[in-house]
Amino acid sequence: MSTNRHLPVRGGRTDDRVIHVVSYTDFLCPYCRRFRTVLKRLRQAFGERLAYTLRHFPIERIHPGATFASRLVEAAGRQGLFWEMHDRLFDNEPPFSEQQMLDMAREIGADMERLARDLADPETLADVDADIAEGRQMGVSGTPTIFVDGVRYDGAWDFYSLADAFAQPVSERIRRSAHAFANLPASGGLALLIASALALICANTPLAGFYHAFIGSRFGIGPPDTPLSLTIGDWCSQGLLALFFLLVGLEIRREMTAGALSDFKAVLLPVIAAVGGGIVPALVYLLFNRGDTAAGWAVPTATDIAFVLGILALLGDRVPPALRVFIAAFAVMDDIVSVLTLAIFYPHNFEAMWLVGAGAAMLAMYALNRGRVYASWPYLLIAIAVWFCLHAAGVHAALAGIVLAGFIPTRPAPDAAPLLAQAANALEALEIAQSDRQASEEDRDTVLDWAGRNLSAASERLLSPADRVERAVAPWSTYFALPLFAFSATGVSLNADLAAPGALSIIVGVILGLVIGKPLGIGLFSFAAIKTGVARGPKGVGIRTFIGAICLCGIGDTVALLLADQAFPEGADGAIAKIAVLIGSILAAALGAAIIAASPGKAFGVEETRA
Prior knowledge:
Number of domains: 3
Helix content: 55-70%
């Protein structure tokens, strides 16, 4: 990319707050042309407050000649005619040849000899390619793609929708701020960290009484002492956490069908790593704990993937993509181990008869799935029944989320051609109705309603019920359910009686289990599987970087805290185990990040792990 490149901007010459709009554009794209007419109205409405910058994103395979058009605009820009060439191209209807575009440049007064030299200059093409590369890094895949004040705009392109986005009323500012926060790589981990910190503050200040009264207050459906009369803390761990397990289950299905778990040898490595990551930290814990405190052996076995992936994202290019895929796949397997641990080893007041009801509800889900029932609500209603039966049986009810994920249907990939024809037909009818001056308002409303229903139907088919549920649940799980659970679970007093019998052994066992046992188990089992040829390692991943990543897997927060509650339902041992989880997680995060930061970045060739 040319370091002296001039990036023309339209507008922005005002002392008032400037609205910066960037559009990735293909000059031969019909949708860019339509967006341009809306943009002209917006420029009239906002005047010099609107600063508009164009980035090139020609899609040559769809619009032959688009790359030449972008180069021509860049070459004209060297003569100060960037916007003149831009306007002339948009004012004429394609298709047009290169010669016709050159004739347009002559009409705006360009020096044709200089233009020819600039067109042939490799730097001109490099500028266009730089825009394309930058766009792809920003997630641009089609045109126009619009960014408002640095935040991608994915709303409607009509004048009033864009005007609201530009004007930024309070609601729009909140929405955009939330969207920007959600796009941060570590936003999920940050939300958990904030919730955990607030809980610790509340539990260790004069607010402790109010905090514990809130977490322990009962909220139920029906009379007291019934299965649905639970404390706020129980609702968080058994109710809200079902959303998290639902996403875990959907991730497992996706990875097994088309992701990192679809290849047998590739799937074996995270499976073996998860087994090692469960066995070794449990053994490390049991080395220091006998008797009553031995019940906490499962606490250091669970990894909090939100924190791990957030730290890996912050470390950037030092973490190769193959390692991220391995860690994500490992997290799926690790969650399976945690789910099985909860179900098998920590049932309370077990009532086997209720499992019959849960089994019957699962059979009903299976029948719906086999009957190709694609509406989501029947599955959700039956999932509530599964949740109730599991809770009444004494099994952790949040596992109902895994059950729902296993049965909610996916659909075969849609045939794009009929859907495109349906959408194009609806849009064409809508355009004709809007431009027909003789059409009555009632006729326009009828066409608008018909077009809206067809467009909704076409877009609905693009997503399966599983996809729709995942999209709807993911933000609630990440920014509501998990943080609220963390808030309810991590509020432990740091003034716990560390001199109590067994307290020191619990702390040592949990910390060493997370910081040493977890990465040791993952590493030993993984290297053994790779060296024996049983599994295939992630390509291009250096040993030091791999070790740093598995050290990060010693971060245990959400599920580890839940396991602490299940292992020590009464007494102070649960609080002590949670303190140890927090300390061990901090140490694991610092150790893993330091090892990766000290690794040789992208130069992994010598240390590549091989099957």
